[in-house]
Amino acid sequence: MSSSVDTIRDLAAQDYKWGFVTEIDEDRVPKGLNEDIVRLISARKGEPEFMLEWRLNALRHWFQMEREQGEPKWANVTFPPIDYQNIVYYSAPKQKPSLDSLNQVDPELLKTYAKLGIPIDEQKRLSNVAVDAVFDSVSVATTFKDKLGEMGVIFCSFSEAVQKHPDLIKKYLGTVVPHTDNFYAALNAAVFTDGSFVYVPKGVRCPMELSTYFRINAAETGQFERTLIVADEGASVSYLEGCTAPIRDTNQLHAAVVELIALDDAQIKYSTVQNWYPGDKEGRGGIYNFVTKRGKCLGRNSKISWTQVETGSAITWKYPSCILQGDNSVGEFYSVALTNNRQQADTGTKMIHIGKNTRSTIVSKGISAGFGQNTYRGQVKILKGATGARNYTQCDSLLIGDKCGAHTFPYIDVRNGSARMEHEASTSKIGEDQLFYLRQRGIKTEDAVSMIVNGFCKTVFKELPMEFAVEAQKLLGVSLEGSVG
Amino acid sequence: MALLEIQDLHASVDGHEILKGVNLTINAGEVHSIMGPNGSGKSTLAAVLARRDAYQVTGGRILFNGKDLLEMDPEEAACEGVFLAFQYPVEIPGIGNAYFLRSAMNAVRKYRGEDELDAMDFLPLYKERMKLLEMDDKLMNRSVNEGFSGGEKKRNEILQLSMLEPKLAILDETDSGLDIDALRIVAQGVNAMRSPDRAFLVITHYQRLLDYIKPDFVHVLVDGKIERSGGPELALELEEKGYVRAEAEVQQALPA
Ligand SMILES: Nc1ncnc2c1ncn2[C@@H]1O[C@H](COP(=O)(O)OP(=O)(O)O)[C@@H](O)[C@H]1O
Ligand SMILES: [Mg+2]
Question: How much is the pTM?
Fold first, then answer.
């Protein structure tokens, strides 16, 4: 009996190569959610009063939402009720409160990131990427700080930003995703523990990719991080986000918030390769990835571009969106979402056109295999003042096998007659004829599937930074193992 | 030992028996042509040889190079040296034509325990072969067969054939949809590949192609069986008389 469970675990573990647990002393608060817990979190982080007030305000709102309506029910996903009192809201590796150099980081942590292939060891300088590593609830290391500092680029953990740049935090925090936005955003605002902060000053093109690597380690904890990126006038930055978690047979909640703000002529490119533990083949365990990501093109001629490759998590619920407020601003959303086995994804975007001549592009590629359920949900809204607005949406689904599902819910709301909208959609099965064609040339079934899927995703992958594109392709191959034949 | 030995082959699709006892022996170095009316089972025979899943073999056996071909899956058969030039080549969006062919060559090389080819080894040869087939360079980086004209697709099949260098090349109506110039170019490509260690099975509806690719043997497949076999003269005879008679019989057999 136990041996067959072990075998299943082993199999699942084989597929998910990031499923190990790091043995490390954790400082955690008791389970449960109330004002005292929020005060405790704020105190642990030594936060100024304004942050505590902001959190408590959000918590009150969340309690009200929970009483009145509970979790949002409109998404095309199903899961048993989450007991929010049975979660640990703060868990951090025990360490000195402030880190001046990597030498002070627990060697177990360094090993963990080495195993994950994340270059937080600056000596290695493997690539031109500055990394902020977030382990459970807190940021453990940020690399290349000095080099970035010379150009005036601030790249640090959110906690540090609260201490060192309170004015910027006060000015921008919650301006794109207010705590009232939705259930999970309210929860995050109350209990978020860390995350990354980026500020790129006027006219500066950030000289390297900035990257945060999120790792959930501890059991029964939730991860609630918050990222805030501000590109000042004429600035530009490319930011990458990656994530993994150990294999556990209970579900874990990840409810993050990301806010992007682009001022006049600024550009922000935000790329995600999301590879949280997806659960085993039977659907046990896995991360609930309930994330609110939104960017505001506040300035004229600004541009925000989201690229996401979502292969992990038991359930994904996220809609990286753009508010196109500045005239001539541009919003883009390129997405690959893959669901295999029992995974569920309800993902898409919102493009809200407010300014004149605003343009948005949406390219969504959904891949379903096994019993996976994949939903695209997108909204394009052209407001009255958005004269000359344009949107192009392309939404393709690929089915592998006949037990999975693809669903598309495009919502279009146009209130200005000059808008131009284009929408293309397709659903196809991975063709037996395509597979046979590749196999007839000697290519193994698995490789053939992975080639066809990569071909299908190509228009999205080419938006990713080079190293990420390679990783994403490999990840798709691994995530699809055993899906055919 | 014969390269290919088909003995009393029966095969069906969706429960319909299509091949009803095919016998055929092909030696290395030979060119065989299979002719016959539409629906007689020519493509089915090709698909069975290429081990397509949807075609169930219900009887008989096939030896390829002394090995049991029916035990192989499509990629194994390909790696052992069976190549099928498709009657309807398939489009594969997002995969570059050259990248695809190099992946295929490397899969075959890996199977044979040979080193992989890198782009530097591959490209010069690839370009040279494209030139021989009078193919536009632009087709190199386009997605496999996507947006190719009918003729370009067929040439692309022959390009793959010439790079993969199989032991047995099966051409399924490679001539259909080609104008006379394209036909000549494709035939030249095939003729350049003829060698004592390679055999061809040329499936065609028309004698025309056989003016350019001279077969050693011609077989007529009617209703799932080889009805007649002979030398090249059989093709000419069929051209004159047509399989009109045979075709008429098949037509009659269909319910009104
Ligand atoms: N997938 C299929 N399902 C049912 N019948 C099929 C299928 N494929 C082919 N057939 C039938 O098998 C017969 C032989 O087809 P095929 O081998 O393509 O003939 P040919 O290539 O000689 O024209 C035809 O009657 C055709 O309708
Ligand atoms: Mg045919």
Answer: 0.80
